[in-house]
Amino acid sequence: MSKKRALRIASYNINGINSRLPVLLRWLEEIRPDVVGLQELKCTDEAFPAKDIEALGYSAIWHGQKSWNGVAILSRVGEPVETGRGLPGGPDDVQSRYIEAAVCGILIANLYLPNGNPWPGPKFDYKLAWMDRLQAHARHLLDSGLPSMLMGDFNVIPTELDVYKPERWAKDALFSPQARAKFAELVDQGWTDAIRKLHPGERIYTFWHYWRNSFQRDAGIRIDHFLLSPPLVKKLKAAGVDREPRGWEKTSDHAPTWVELAV
């Protein structure tokens, strides 16, 4: 019999993959996550640094867009088998925010949810409409019974526990009552927030602004999430944030978030 091992799956908003490539490659080499979802590539499909990533042993699929958005899934435990590109329900939506693949028997949905600022306004309306589409597709994934996860930068601060000073975010779309309510509705479909499952009362952040020494003061927010379907919750062994890369030179304003599953 083969022994079970922990599969480490990470989510990382890289905030420009080519400008942060040294940071990404260093992190991949040092931590060696098995599967990675990247968000905010900010590059076209042609400009994706596939060769640099493949040189570290990772296969990759990606969905790019010039200057904005962009998502990718990397794997060193088998090729990611793409099952979706673009969030269903928006035939006219040209923003590259969603990619889905099967890896190691798990259906992984990697997403970069719209920011929504300024609020109120058209960008906020787009955010809420995108969340409605996400709910509809997430229900489909749950109904399939397949081991599934939604991961990525959700651009939603779920509760006051997830923000350094709630009053400073009161007028931000990320902490708006509407976005928080829709996130709660999504979770209530039957998903489990992996970080909160294992760390119910801890202040854990995944994003810190570049200004005012936010990272040094730990004045952060938690907007990068892993939502697990019931079959995966049983396999959840650990979850956390790799804070160290956030302190590196020319780094992203996010830190990698991860879960470990018994497989």
UniProtKB/TrEMBL annotation:
Encoding gene, per UniProt annotation: xth
Family under the similarity heading: Belongs to the DNA repair enzymes AP/ExoA family.
Domain of life: Bacteria
CDD domains (alphabetical): ExoIII-like_AP-endo
Record carries keyword Hydrolase: yes
Gene3D superfamilies, alphabetized: Endonuclease/exonuclease/phosphatase (3.60.10.10)
Protein name, as recorded: Exodeoxyribonuclease III
Domain Endonuclease/exonuclease/phosphatase: 10-254
UniProt keyword terms in alphabetical order: Hydrolase, Magnesium, Metal-binding
GO molecular function, one term: double-stranded DNA 3'-5' DNA exonuclease activity
Taxonomic source organism: Sphingomonas sediminicola
E.C. designation(s): 3.1.11.2
